[in-house]
Amino acid sequence: MSSVTLFGLCGAALVGLGLYGLIVLPGALRRIIAFNLLGSGVFLLFGVIARRGGGVIAGTGSDPVPQALIITGLVVAFAATALAVALLRRLLQETGRDDWDEDERSDR
Amino acid sequence: MSAALIVDLGLTLLILGLGVWTVAARSNNGAVVGYIAYGLLVALVWVRLAAVDVALTEAAIGSGLTGLLLLGVATRLPRSARLTRPPTGLGTRLLAGFLSAAVAGGLAAVVLLLPDPAPTLAPSVAANLPATGLGNPVTGVLIAFRAIDTLLESVVLVFAIIGVWSLAPKDGWGERPGWLRPAPLGSALTLLAQLLPPIGILVGIHLFWTGATAPGGAFQGGAVLAAMWVLAMIAGLARPPAVSRRWLRLMLVAGPALFLTVGIAGIWLAGAFLAYPVAYAKPLILVIEAALTLSIAAALGLLLAGPPEHPSAAERQP
User: Fold this and answer.
1) Domain check: are B33 and B136 in the same one?
2) Counting CB atoms within 10 angstroms of each CB, which of A88, B165, B236, B314 has the fewest?
3) Where are the alpha helices (DSSP H) in chain A?
């Protein structure tokens, strides 16, 4: 197995891990982190596809088109995270809690 | 098994271990610190995948700025939220685990079944790059061949700022952003904030300038500049500007506005939206990149500084 395939499998596992955390974890902060993990796995898969496409011709180690899309994606993911954190901090200010499923909580 | 593959295997195991840690850690702070380390290791993977431009962005934005953002909120969570709470029910966890494993397995199968030889756009980029006057194919794709993505993305940053600012408390509008409360003066942080920015600003400008021919560019340079600004704000050496300032808003929209203007002018001058007249391609790209760097730095810094707050809000907060 080559390193590129290895990183591809790593990306696939990270997507699964992030998805699991997004569904299961309590508290908004942990879900935001899990969401970033999921995104990071998707970017890695993209990077693997870029690397496979770049080895074909001499001079470029990696296909620049997916690379540019990953850079765009990283910045957009940061912007989305900042907005999510802002929502969470406002929620903390208003209610002092980091979660919103009140009915479920009071049942337990 | 070659030495490189063994190193890559170790790197993969470390990344997966840290990924599991960020999901399973008991404390929120622990999870955030794990995520920062994770981001730095992923930046190493990008170098191994020959994507140095992405590695620079990942280290600066994916790990550094995101880490700071998450740490800022993790330390403010109430104590009750830091303790372990009753976890989700076993049935839900099993179902979620099954679903996630299925998704991961499907993606892994796709990775193993990728077509060989791989489809690629690299030859067409290499063939058309001389027309832009650039030497870095990634910058060429970002600013010329897929300029629409980059334009929309720079607009997304402005929208994110609008979104964050809209979350200002009732009495906060027009005040200074309130997330970055300075540490006590005289600390080691103050010294760092005095020593590092002159070098960091040079590095940021260098990254932007060198992006035309080597790894680097507007995003990487802008992220380093934003980091220096945020460092000065955390140390209390610079105060975040009030959000009602006109120069601040002009700085935020300068990059996208110039990009859009040149793009629309391209309809008449070069025959298509976002096309550059070949004779002026390089200088136009440099001017757009310079404005974008400035706007990206301002936007990233302001996203970390948060929504405006009334000065007295600091005492009211937990």
Assistant:
1) no
2) B314
3) 3-24, 28-54, 64-95, 102-107
Residue whose C-alpha is closest to residue B226's, from B61, B59, B32, B56: B61
Distance between A73 CA and the closest CA of chain B, angstroms: 9
Structural domain for B39, as ranges: 1-77
**CA–CA min distance B52, chain A (Å):** 9
Domain check: are B226 and B139 in the same one?
yes
Residues of A in contact with B46 (CB under 8 A): 47
Residues 8-67 of A with CB under 8 A from B: 8-21, 23-27, 29-30, 32-34, 36-37, 40, 43-45, 47-57, 59-65, 67
pLDDT tens digits along B131-185: 888 888 888 889 888 899 999 999 999 999 999 999 998 888 888 898 887 767 6
Longest CA span, chain A: 63
Residue-wise burial string across A14-30, b where 16 or more C-beta atoms lie within 10 A, e elsewhere: bbbbbbbbbbbbbbbbb
Q: What angle do CA A85, B252, B255 make, to 5 degrees?
A: 120
Partners of residue B53 in chain A, C-beta under 8 Å: 67, 71
Give the pLDDT of chain A (108 residues) as one tens digit per residue. 788 899 999 999 999 999 999 999 888 899 999 999 999 999 999 999 988 887 655 556 788 899 999 999 999 999 999 999 999 998 888 887 777 655 444 443
Subunit contact A20:B23, Cβ cutoff 8 A: yes
- Listed in sequence order, the residues at least 6 apart from B235 whose beta carbon sits closer than 8 Å to its beta carbon are B182, B183, B187, B189, B190, B192, B193, B194
Q: What is the pLDDT of residue A7?
A: 94
Chain A: give the shortest CA distance to residue B232, in Å: 20
Judged by a CB distance cut-off of 8 A, whether residue A101 touches chain B is no
Q: How many domains does chain B have?
A: 2
Give the type of residue at B143: I
Q: Tokens 């560019």 correspond to what residue?
A: B217
Q: Does the beta carbon of B113 lie under 8 angstroms from any beta carbon of chain A? A: no
Which residue do the tokens 């005095």 mark?
B194
Tell me the percentage of chain B whose pLDDT exceeds 90. 53
Q: Are residues B71 and B133 in the same domain?
A: no
The gap from C-alpha B293 to its chain's centroid, in whole angstroms, comes to: 12
The C-alpha of B277 sits at a distance from chain A's nearest C-alpha, in angstroms, of 22
Say how many Å lie between the first and final Cα of chain B, rounded: 55
On whether residue B88 sits in a domain, the answer given is: no
**Entry pTM:** 0.91
